[in-house]
Amino acid sequence: MSRATLLQSIDLFKGLSGPDLNTLARTVSLHRYEAGQIIFKQGDIGTTMYIVVKGHVNIFMPGEASRLISLKDLTQGEYFGELALVDDKPRSASARAVTDVDLLELTRDMLLTYIGLQPRAALAILHTMSERLRETNILLSQRTSKNVDEEIERSLTWSDRIADKVAELNGSWAFIIILLGSTVTWMIVNSLHLLGNPFDPYPYVFFNLILAVLVALQGPLIVMSQNREGLRDRARAEADYKVNLKNEVTIEMILQEVQALRNEMEERLRQTEPQLKSQGEISSKDASAKEVFKDLLSKPFQGETDL
Q1: Residue 115 to residue 287: CA distance in whole angstroms
Q2: 225 with 159: CB under 8 angstroms?
């Protein structure tokens, strides 16, 4: 895949024309990272955006070895670190090469130089970034925990609801009783000539045709309902993953803040410890002087004993 084609597949540059993409493709540089190598760490000041050409990259929240929180796995055509192109804020997460990976690197200086040559491209990039910002605001305004079943129920069509009702009926005793009752009634009516001439005499060919059509319709309807149930399970799993991920990130941030607070308290204690020791020595000296003074007051003067 050429660099221009790879850039064209990225949302950030989807508004650029072919010549603009070719110009930008000549601007980016290619770098290789070995498996396990850290691309950048959380807190680093970044000015580079990365595009995965080959391999896999993992975005994670750092912590102790047993508390690493994996946020996302990226593969060919995906990108990360794009916010570094527009601000000087520290990286919000760390990135690590899972396998040997080739990355296209676009720095802020490269992008500014390119925009200086192609000013019209700035509007296309800003338009795309504003759309992504709007989507992010919508996502942040929504609750992470949600009732997946209610959302799926609201999106069902009338045909979906019929398929679910049919599948629910087929898996019940009511369907078995109805089918047995209908079969027995059909046989009695046509065997005992209760309606005059039997409309479906033995071996009940028409009834067998009805059962065959019923079975033929039941199969697809049941499969449709099972597919929707599988969709519900996947939606529940995705919602649980988002909730757990949000909780893990929140807990990790709280632990980092608590650790920073503990370090700050220990540093302040080390700074004030000499002062506390000196105050303690002065207090002990004052206490000793008071004891000596009390002993002197409790003893009678020599002149008083002679009298």
Answers
A1: 77
A2: no
As a residue count, the chain comes to 307
Quote the distance between the C-alpha of residue 229 and its chain's center.
23
pLDDT tens-digit readout, 100-159:
998 988 888 887 777 776 676 677 667 766 776 676 666 555 555 566 677 777 777 888
Asked if 28 and 85 count as a contact pair (C-beta separation under 8 A), the reply is: no
Degrees (nearest 5) of the Cα angle 243, 248, 250? 95
Q: Which DSSP string do the residues of 38-63 spell out, in sequence order?
A: EEE-TT-B--EEEEEEES-EEEEE--
Q: What is the tens place of the pLDDT at every residue in 227-274?
A: 888 888 887 787 777 777 777 767 767 777 787 788 778 787 777 777
Q: Do 47 and 84 touch, CB atoms closer than 8 A? A: yes
Domain range 3-141, CATH class: mainly beta
What distance in Å separates the CA atoms of residue 19 and residue 17, rounded to the nearest whole number? 6
Taking the domains of the chain in order of start, what are their residue ranges?
3-141, 148-264, 269-299
